[in-house]
Amino acid sequence: MPGGNRVGAVCADEFVAENVKLHRKHGERRGGGVWEVLGAVLTLLSAAFILLTFPLTGWMCAKVIQEYERAVIFRLGRVIKGRAKGPGLFWFIPWLDVIQTVDLRTVCFNIRPQEVLTADWVPLKVDAVVFYRVVDPSVWVTRVKNGYQATHTLAQTTLRATLGAHTLTDILTQRTGIAKRMEEALYTASRLWGVLVERVELKDLTLPVSLQRCMASEAEAARRARAKMIVAAGEVKASRALQEAASGLSPVAFHLRYLQSLSSVQSTASIVVVSLPTELLDMFLSHQP
């Protein structure tokens, strides 16, 4: 959506501005003196040489990079001031400049299953997926060596530390909140590298076999208890309905209903039906305490 793209661009710009402030806060300065002057002289001589031999050297001094890439240029070992070059065509000095191309597209990687011990001492195997992208190519190149491996290692340690602070019940019921907290922790630790962590998701939780059996037995017992409660509640409702129906019958109607019930019962070798007068039953019930 266009609105989402604008919001992402604003967040990236704020991220870059924050990194610039951090650079200034830490007091990163370029050295001066004779070497600065010598570098400026070499740059001017190289530019004059390129202009004089432009038809021959023009193709050597041009480079094209894609829309999703940026070029960080090191001139005599130092990053050129300003933002990274690109996208499109730009010019450089081949014998003075070294170019490093950075991909700005979102990178997705899987965290290998990690052995995690929860706060209630339950061992788990958890894997996750992380989405991030580079928003400041200059910082990405100059602040960290092999940023991809560093980000992967940081994600693994953050996963273990975040899940280790929660119980098994919290992990099973609050996966979204735990993933959000992990995302915030990764952002705080990696923003100094020019990286913006966009999303973190927990993929799979693997429990020990013995614990799976215990949880399955507990769930089965709970289901049986609920089933017995439902059956008992049904029997109570049925008995109340029969009591209400019997209270509205006259003695003659009650006696006819009793005889009809006896006729509907089939007598077999295993079932013997004996009919008793209702008066005898009334006498027996009247002597009960």
Automatic annotation (TrEMBL):
Residues 60-219 form the Band domain. The keyword Membrane applies. Keywords: Membrane, Transmembrane, Transmembrane helix. It comes from the Eukaryota. InterPro entries: Band-7_stomatin-like, Band_7, Band_7/SPFH_dom_sf, Stomatin_HflK_fam. One of its GO terms (cellular component) is cytoplasmic side of plasma membrane. Gene3D superfamilies: 6.10.250.2090, Band 7 domain. SMART domains: PHB (SM00244). Pfam families: Band_7 (PF01145). The chain crosses the membrane at residues 34-60. Plays a role in the regulation of glomerular permeability, acting probably as a linker between the plasma membrane and the cytoskeleton. Belongs to the band 7/mec-2 family. This is Podocin. The gene is LOC115569952.
